[in-house]
């Protein structure tokens, strides 16, 4: 299952796939604003809007197949076979609920293949255009989460799914709540800013590709979003992208000047922001949150090592307690739990690998996990090789996509959406800088 980018004899004409590109952009905007529809504008449709991107994904797969762009590679084929076996075993030996099984199946046979379709349709320039849009949207997003941070949970900006007046924020510290932004839950807000970080660092390295004022504004917004979001996950995501950026400097010393300018701008912005009451209050709340959580989880080891390695190794170590074919695909999702029990609950596991093994059993679950590990490994290697050509975009996108694709909870629709999108963008960014087509032969 190798992704080999070689010259193709067939040129993909940009205009021929305009409708497909529009659909990808629609998928992107619905990912960002689906929560806003469910909370504020169409609360009565909150439940069906949960899968509002699925019809677009299905249409993209169908049209890509029609145009000969569907990627029938080893990853997609093996994932499809494994998923349909899991569907059958779920109905024969598992929960035996067809609706729950189909809900779980869509994750692996619709959204996972969509990564490769996005990679085939989008050009590298499309990725940069989307990155610019993220930069532009980051400033109003910061304004929104700041309003949510300072407003009571009963305020309109903090309404929950379906117009819930109890609010959508999660407890943070010092009576402040973690804001969800335009998303249904606070996790979506953390993912948005983690998704923004690679583009901020990329445009600092190649500043001629964006308006400097917007880049400064987005950088300030990213820095402010960390304390305002009260999210340790976001802090780790941004730190990870920063480490990937430092690695570029080690590999390419000639860009140290650009990095120094970037760091100087960051420190200057931090200095200016530290004078504002918003930053001071947010920092105090965030520091308290870190201290409290670290104490509850046993310090840095509990926060990082146990949560990461435990999420990877724990499910495999306890797999002997699970039926050979698992409890049934879809059972580990919140929607599946609602259909089976009438309430939202983690019926199998909160961590992704535990959910996969619990739903599909050791054999099938490990196959899906192996597919994800192999895919992440391959795109990481390809992105690293791009550094030799002074192309940093794939590498920085991998800084967010690495763990997002590998380990995050695909059962949650927003997480699944960000994982699908970043996977597709990484593949598209791996194309040659000087062409508007994907030159590949996927074996």
What's the structural domain tally? 2
Question: What does the average pLDDT come to?
Answer: 88
- The helix content, as a percent range, equals 55-70%
Oligomer: single chain
Instruction: Please tell me how large the radius of gyration is.
Output: 22 Å
- Sketch the major β-sheet: 2 strands, antiparallel
What is the total tally of β strands? 4
Tell me the distance between the termini.
6 Å
Q: Give the H and E element order.
A: EHHHHHEEHHHHHHHHHHE
Query: Spans of 5+ residues with little confidence (pLDDT < 50)?
Result: 5-13, 435-443
Structure characterization notes:
The chain has 443 residues and is mostly helical. It has two domains: 1-121 and 317-443, no CATH class; 134-297, no CATH class. Helices cover 67% and strands 2% of the residues. The protein has helices at 18-41, 54-66, 74-92, 98-121, 124-150, 186-205, 212-229, 232-251, 256-273, 277-297, 299-317, 334-341, 352-386, 393-407, 413-429, and strands spanning 3-4, 170-173, 176-178, 441-442. It has a two-stranded antiparallel ribbon. Strands 2-3 form a two-stranded antiparallel sheet. A hairpin with a 2-residue loop joins strand 2 and strand 3 (176-178). Helix 4 (98-121) runs antiparallel to helix 12 (334-341) and helix 7 crosses helix 10. The termini are close together. The model is unreliable at 5-13 and 435-443 (pLDDT under 50).
Task: Summarize it.
This protein has 443 residues and is mainly alpha-helical.
Indicate the topology.
Elements (H helix, E strand, L loop, with lengths): L2 E2 L13 H24 L12 H13 L7 H19 L5 H24 L2 H27 L19 E4 L2 E3 L7 H20 L6 H18 L2 H20 L4 H18 L3 H21 L1 H19 L16 H8 L10 H35 L6 H15 L5 H17 L11 E2 L1
Antiparallel strand pairs: 1-4, 2-3
